[in-house]
Amino acid sequence: MSFCGLWKETSQVNDGTRHVCFGSRRIRRICLTLFFGTNLGVFADARAEELVSELLPHRAVYDLTLMPVSNRSEWDSVTGRIVFELSGSVCAGFKQNFREVLVLSGPKSGRRVIDSFTSDSEAGDGRSMEFSGSEVEPDGTVQRTSGVAKSTENGGTAHFNSPMQSDLTIDKYTYFPVSYTRNLIHEALVGHHFFSATQFDGTDQLKPIEESFAILGEAQSGRSGIDSILAGKDFEPLRHWPVTIGYRHSSPKEVSESEYTVFQDLFENGVSQRLMLDFKDFKLSGKLVEFSFLEKIRCSPLN
Questions:
Q1: In this structure, are residues 212 and 245 in contact, taking their beta carbons and an 8 Å threshold?
Q2: pLDDT recorded at residue 107
Q3: Domain limits at 77?
Q4: Peptide bond preceding 177: is omega within 30 degrees of 0, i.e. cis?
Q5: Which of 26-35, 133-142, 178-187, 192-201 has the lowest mean pLDDT?
Q6: Torsions phi, psi of 72, nearest 5?
Q7: What share of the chain is helix, strand, coil (3-state, %, to 5)?
Q8: Of 79, 108, 128, 188, which is the most exposed, with the fewest CB atoms less than 10 Å away?
Q9: Which residues are CB-contacts of 65 (< 8 A; sequence separation ≥ 6)?
Q10: C-alpha span between 41 and 175 (Å, rounded)
């Protein structure tokens, strides 16, 4: 079945179901990377090259379910699925595809569906990216986003082609998605427990910049703590860390608490297991239910 084929039934609902865009941009941040510049990003990548293993090209599928004890929202039921694909390499550049569908149900609000897809292509050095995406609006129309972003030692720019043309200046300390992931892993490998960064991924034209603060737990390795779906796939020698990342929109006028928080168990090759999304009013648990390797692109000495 194709990547988009997994969602064919859900995205073509004709029973009066209302579609809603709540949280789709937020949920995408999980992969970040998986979770995923930048003067700082390039310098950090240079230091990280000796420590960070090549990000693993892979396809991962996560089932999402509502954590009942956390629910203070209008929804009685929230279920969904995330499909994430990462391909490429440092020499060839990286590509991320991300699809997510959520179905929310409640006695007052009825049944609503979140349906979105994004695709990013990022240079291996983290200095440029192309982004595109689509979201189903509540009235059933599809809003599309696309553009390009580039960074230099003095900062950078982003140009949106759609939904409307606009230009944005990016601070030199802003990370693109894959660059952020590589540097987050670097911080974990050198034993740091905190990592603060500004991120841009092109998913929201109105609020394009987000500030993030990551807390990294102690490293683990070996068979214990590895999900059964990853067993026998050479993950046992790899280190992995419990990572909690809080996000808020960049605002120079005030300091506010995180608007939402993402937890993941992150391996040093960029694969995540055991997700948790905290939207304040409710939390979602994400279980890795499918995993497969994608083709590796080897870097030759000439690259």
A1: yes
A2: 85
A3: 19-293
A4: no
A5: 26-35
A6: -125, 25
A7: 15, 45, 40
A8: 108
A9: 78, 79, 284, 285, 287
A10: 6
pTM as predicted: 0.81
pLDDT score for 288: 96
Let me know if residue 3 belongs to a domain.
no
Number of domains into which the chain is organized: 1
The amino acid at residue 287 is K
pLDDT at 250 over 60: no
* C-alpha span between 54 and 38 (Å, rounded): 20
- The encoded tokens of residue 54 equal 């090549």
Residue 125's pLDDT is: 87
CA distance 153 to 276: 35
Q: Region 182-208: what's the mean pLDDT?
A: 87
CA separation for the pair 49, 51 (Å, rounded): 6
Which residue type is seen at 292?
A: S
Residue 177, helix vs strand vs coil: helix
Handedness of CA 248, 287, 187, 41 (dihedral sign): negative
What are the tokens at 8?
Answer: 């064919």
Asked whether residue 169 is domain-assigned, the answer is: yes
Can you give the pLDDT at residue 53? 60
Is 104 in contact with 112 (CB distance < 8 Å)?
Answer: yes
Judge contact between 275 and 262, C-beta under 8 A. Answer: yes
**According to the model, what pLDDT value does residue 22 have?**
41
Residue type, 169: T
Using the 8-state DSSP alphabet, how is residue 15 labeled? Answer: S
Give the pLDDT band of residue 211 (cuts 50, 70, 90).
Answer: confident
Per-residue tokens: 259 = 């608007």
CA dihedral 135, 256, 41, 97 (to 10 degrees): -20
Rg (CA), the chain: 19
Residue given tokens 């694909």 in the structure block: 85
